[in-house]
């Protein structure tokens, strides 16, 4: 017999799919649980939701017993069947052929037909090899007693634990042997046995086939539930990885912007330290304000990374409404910014993801202007189209004869982060020199983001 299953398995709907012990003829116990979603809710419906048995619901007695008690029960039943068959043969009227030798054969056949009953739980085919021939001998010798119950029980076990083709062949072999034995009995054909014996074996086979099918069906349900649970866990892991990547991009944008402003203003302060003390004081104030803001944002992002469970957002995500504060910081870093954004009342509300991505793209583009062009002028244009948001950032380039304020090693993640944000919504991004400066153009589909 197949080994028992003792574990429980979570169903994605929140229940538990709990298998019973296979060795004792148990099966997976499933229950339909009403849910708020419409549609049929039963295990046989592939569109329904299968929920498991509640934890407090105990299994039936027949499924709580382990293998050993069932074997003990089979031993008692086998002894009772053998005893009743021997008494019926010894005390009943004489049958053909008669005589002590034939009675001895009948007694031996009774023992062989009844005593292997407990073996059916460990190896039903071996039990069938012993019980079937002995039962055929008893039928041919006009034996008495309920030995046919043993044959039906063994056929049941074979059908419940093997494939349909094998168990059907075994059942037909047993029925055929009994019919042949009854037809060629010593006292003449036993037509009553021909008509009565096969249905008993057929009932045993049908019961075993039903048990096998039910077990296979429940096992498939449990495997599907486990597969759904694995898929749910994988989706959760992917979602965590995507969220950490988003946070990493936000962290990069925050740090890069703050460090660029600090580097520019500290350089200015160093150059005018002796000649313009007031300018130095202003530069230090800008550095202090920028660093505090960057530390606050970094604290929020790191706090999100440290959260072990779901919790409310610590701060609202920035969006296009926060552009004035961003442009004020960029202006303090030495870059004059002209903002052209349509702000009509009929402008559709942007999805939160598009709003955040647009802000981060503008922030990163202006940070690159501060880093690479130095004091210059930048132009930011934001246009709401019917189905997309267009963003364009242009700068006039570095002053003639002046090198960029910060050197670039070509390994920055600014453009990569912007491109990933745009690709997330299926948009387009272009970044290339334009005139004496540089141009960044991004389009974010709004309809795609809403879907």
Characteristic terms for this protein:
451 residues; alpha+beta; Heat Shock Protein 90; 3 domains; 5-stranded mixed beta sheet; two-stranded antiparallel ribbon; 12 helices; 9 strands; 56% helix; 11% strand; rod-shaped; disordered N terminus
What does this molecule look like?
With 451 residues, this protein is an alpha+beta fold. It folds into 3 domains: 1-65, no CATH class; 68-230, no CATH class; 318-451, Histidine kinase-like ATPase, C-terminal domain (Heat Shock Protein 90). It is built from 12 helices and 9 strands. Strands 5-6-7-9-8 form a 5-stranded mixed sheet. Strands 1-2 form a two-stranded antiparallel sheet. A hairpin with a 3-residue loop joins strand 6 and strand 7. Helix 2 (67-91) runs antiparallel to helix 3, helix 7 packs antiparallel against helix 8 and helix 7 (191-271) packs parallel to helix 10. The longest helix has 81 residues, at 191-271. It is rod-shaped.
Q: Tell me the overall shape.
A: rod-shaped
How many helical stretches?
12
Mean pLDDT: 74
Ends distance = 53 Å
The strand order across the widest sheet is 5-6-7-9-8
Biggest β-sheet strands, sense, barrel: 5 strands, mixed
- Gyration radius, in Å: 42 Å
Number of domains: 3
Summarize the amount of helix as a percent range.
55-70%
Residue share in β-strands = 5-15%
> How do the SSEs run, as a string of H and E?
EEEEHHHHHHHHHEHEEHEEH
